Amino acid sequence: MNQPAAISDIPIETCVTPEQEHGERAVFCGLTSIIWLHRKIQDAFFLVVGSRTCAHLIQSAAGVMIFAEPRFATAVLQERDLAGLADCHEEIDRVVAQVLERRPQLRNLFLVSSCPSEVIKLDLENAAGRLNRQYGGRVRFFDYSGSGIETTFTQGEDSCLSRLVEHMPADDSNEPRLLIAGTLPDIVEDQFLRLFGDLGIGAVDFLPARSLDDLPPVGKQTRVLLAQPYLGQTARALIGRGASLVEAPYPLGAEGTLEWLRAAARTFAVDDDRFERVTAAPLARAQRAVALQRKRLEGKRIAFLPDSQLELPLARFLQRECGASLLEIGTPYFDRQSLAAELELLPAGIRIVEGQALNRQLDRVRAAQPDLTVCGLGIANPLEAEGLRTKWSIELMFSPIQGFEQAGDLAELFCRPLVRNERLAV
Question: Dmax of the chain from CA atoms?
């Protein structure tokens, strides 16, 4: 079996150094990630300790209907809590008791900190430990930070998964296992499982698992393949438990998915002929589906403003598979270790900007007048009012976009604002 490189082994001198900007920021906070995490982890409840603003944000992001029964809620901090006049831990205990009384079948509960709870130094790690002792193992309590202070919204998942790594059982066996890290829709996960099975890679785990009772083991024989580019903290936590990282592009588009699977195949010494035989048909379907959308995206000038940390693999997909022209790739954080394989596929000289100075970046967008700007929801509407077409980056987090079967859908998501503009043109 080929031995994958550890994160620290990636030569930094071969990586692009992006420009850095610091200034005004406009991103959702990590609480937003609860929406896809609670859909994936089907036996967990997420209790945010935050303000009414936090509660409104999550409800708006989820689009929860009046009859829905979501597995998340907010323990709202009042003025007395924020002023230090009330015992917040007593309030947390009371709200947890209410949740468990209403849902006695719950076995796992996340306490999620927010900006307000972190500002008043509320120790949710200590609260989770106390509640674990109080409930005697009947319910497991975890904690992680969903705060939006100096973070962007996808880092909520990174914080959650890195905390789960601490609870993964140790794997002392000599049998190699593949661990896919990053939340994927169930349908995409099932597609990948079939492909890995056809390739002869049978020992495949996912983090997060659909049930926290099925947390996968981790050890020196664990090979980690990241499904999302924003999991640097999780990757380092897994390496700290003995795992090794498989360097690969991300499974976005036909090419990205092919190279992602190829990296796993090489790690597990899959025969080249078998790899080509297994991937040929789904690759051809993906290429045909993307080609149908390419005629609308080819030659279009596209700019990315920093928001989701998906910007680099999405830019690679649009440029290489859809024929788009990249003006600028802005990303909130640039983890050169997680993005090394993506950087090799981007055109030389492309402008990459890490961080956000919103006014300066908007000035560049207005000057360049791109055909499409991929950005956060709060920035999109003002740009639309100025006659610029936009794509909400957060929409890509709620849509199945990974894998061969979704490659055409991914391209079509970027076509929608262009089609809408054509239909509205007078």
Answer: 69
Structural Rg of the chain based on CA atoms: 22
In the sheet that holds 372-375, the strands lie side by side as: 19-22, 352-356, 325-331, 301-304, 372-375, 390-392
Q: Scanning the structure block, which residue is given the tokens 């999550």?
A: 58
Distance (Å, whole) CA 26 – CA 143: 26
**Distance, CA of 353 to CA of 345 (rounded, Å):** 17
Does 312 lie in the same domain as 213? no
The amino acid at 370: P
pLDDT band at 75 (very low <50, low <70, confident <90, very high): confident
Beta-bridged to residue 145, according to DSSP, are 113
Strands (E), 198-256: 204-207, 222-226, 244-245
Listed in sequence order, the DSSP H helices in 67-185 are 79-82, 88-102, 115-119, 124-134, 155-165
10 pLDDT more than 70: no
Interatomic CA distance for residues 242 and 222, integer angstroms? 8
For 90-120, the pLDDT digits (tens) are 888 888 999 999 999 999 999 999 887 877 7
CA distance 204 to 192: 10
Residue 410, domain CATH: 3.40.50.1980
Domain that holds residue 395: 293-424
